[in-house]
Automatic annotation (TrEMBL):
It comes from the Archaea. This is Uncharacterized protein. It comes from Halalkalicoccus paucihalophilus. SUPFAM superfamilies: Winged helix' DNA-binding domain.
Length: 119
């Protein structure tokens, strides 16, 4: 015996899919509409990543990625972002270290001059 196919089933399935696409960063809520007088319904639009996905996978004849491949790609992107984010403080620390070394050299020079004047 099959499951009765109803509007509720379609809404439930579509929300599960929408949540997953939203988690993957492919869609985002862009507004709400209230055509029936009840609870306003969410309206979704593609994110930049979603548009890139459509261009990459849905406009060419190629095998569709599975959810694991998509998750791996997303994690790779997150790692790249973290590496870029972590590189900025490292550059700043390196600059400050160079400034500290410069100050240390100046201090040593001043000490040498002071010693020469005193002795």
């Amino acid at each position: 015996m099959g499951v009765p196919f109803s509007r509720d089933v379609l809404l439930g399935v579509s929300m599960v899919i929408a949540r997953r696409l939203e988690e993957w960063g492919l869609i985002e809520e862009v507004g709400r509409v209230n055509e029936s007088g009840g609870i306003p319904e969410r309206v979704f639009g593609l994110t930049d990543a979603g548009r890139e996905f459509v261009e990459k996978y849905l406009t060419e004849e190629r095998e569709r990625p599975n959810s694991y491949e998509m998750r791996i790609e997303r994690l790779k992107d997150e790692v790249d972002d973290l590496q870029t984010t972590n590189e900025r403080p490292k550059v700043k620390v390196d600059q400050q270290y160079e400034q500290l070394k410069d100050l240390e050299n100046r201090f040593d020079t001043l000490l040498d001059r002071l010693e020469e004047q005193l002795f």
